[in-house]
């Protein structure tokens, strides 16, 4: 254990990276590549981030393995074989371990170590990082690669602690098959992606399954299945061309299918035909080239509702499994080939909470306004305090001791999704106001880490000043984020974790930049190419002089 040293102006290392998911592993590698000394901290016992923690049965990526992977290394693209076009959790976690080993960054990571606080020292210009193992490390640059969905939401239901049976969270599912649900009565609370994926797996073994649904979600088929050798060969031929091409797209990936006609140019029969083709081709969300228009989105939403209902035998259940309250894409849609059909099994029952809300969790099970349902196990698939939650889980203090919680009291504010005014040389990949969860997170991780380390390289080449965005840039970015959210059907009218609406009392700010990956990428690099006009550069501290701020 290292005792905290008095400020000397000397860092323990150049960079600290917190987290070892997609962004963290790549950040460690980038630091090493650039000759920087680096320390990594990870609260889990292995790498993987999201794919380490969410080890529940059925967990699977809904972005195809052709896209949801690193492309920075030709060797990695060529040497790793995905077994499925939408890989499952265990395989993605193995992949991340493979990459971390190949990049030789595992040795840089302290596992089972949570970062508790990060404090900016104004006299030295360093960040002081304190960990759960009592260590304090001082660095010049801090990269919090802590993910957007890594802080589980505490269940806001009375009586949670009273339940006498077993309880599990999908977001921290016990590993190595230690959970045995055979013959048990299981209640699942939550029907987002996690609930939709775990319910069919539980139904395979449990005696009775009760699904407590507050809001129904869109469920369309997955694109899981065997990899296409031709597509794999194409990726391997020139991975760097693929990498560049991803950054030219809206979503940071090349969709496997999309309609080539415009909704507004088709008559009713043409629209119906295009929708059916899109459903059959498994690209219903992109059935039209102008699928983002409200009228096109409404047609897509209605079409999916009809397809969903057709898969469920019982009319009441079918009606209630369909989302009538929000348009497709208003909140994160789910994918499953088996979820809806699971409700056709006699031992699986839907509990529609808007009609019969949960009153309380009691020792023997769950009591709704209509009945008490006896249970042996409760599974919480109740989601996350998304995007700002993981940031608030660390006690972060910037210039003047200002805490991030105060800086973000009215919701996250930053510039280009990575840096916050008042917190110089602190970088937040995968966080608020970036394309994050509305893009391919693997592509985003590489892009943001590249941008961060290109920024670090620029700073090192310019006398190592402290860099922070200007308040005006943050305001501009807030307006940009809102402007693009207004164009996305349902984004501002649907209660979702995109805007903090799933957490009682959380500030309501739409936290995802919907301007598209290409525009985002170009805006980032325009800053760098022009010497950071949207930022403030502060000279390195000198003895007897304060830090002086000036425009970039
Ligand atoms: P989500 O998508 O936030 O889903 C959480 C679910 O839990 C959702 O159906 C919630 O209903 C439900 N929930 C939360 N609290 C309660 C209470 N108190 N009572 C009843 N139901 C509740 O999280 P996931 O883990 O499924 O998915 C997260 C992301 O991972 C996903 O979007 C993909 O990007 C991958 P609500 O909708 O709030 O009415």
- State the low-pLDDT regions, or none: 543-552
CATH architectural name of the largest domain: 3-Layer(bba) Sandwich
The structural class is alpha/beta
- Oligomeric organization of the protein chains: single chain
Can you count the helices? 16
Average residue pLDDT: 95
* The CATH fourth-level homologous superfamily of the largest domain: FAD/NAD(P)-binding domain
Rg measurement, Å: 24 Å
Provide the CATH top-level class of the largest domain.
Alpha Beta
Calculate the terminal CA-CA distance, rounded to whole Å. Answer: 40 Å
Range of strand content = 15-25%
Walk me through what this model shows.
- It is a single chain.
- This protein has 552 residues and is α/β, with parallel strands linked by helices.
- It has helices spanning 22-33, 50-53, 74-79, 89-102, 193-205, 229-237, 239-246, 268-281, 294-310, 315-321, 339-342, 388-392, 404-407, 441-461, 471-486, 517-529; strands at residues 13-18, 38-41, 109-110, 115-121, 126-131, 136-144, 166-169, 185-189, 208-213, 219-220, 334-335, 348-352, 358-362, 365-368, 372-374, 377-380, 395-397, 426-427, 466-469, 535-538, 549-551.
- The chain folds into 2 domains: 13-151 and 386-551, 3-Layer(bba) Sandwich (FAD/NAD(P)-binding domain); 152-217 and 332-383, FAD/NAD(P)-binding domain.
- Strand 1 (13-18), helix 1 (22-33) and strand 2 form a beta-alpha-beta unit.
- The chain binds ligand NA7.
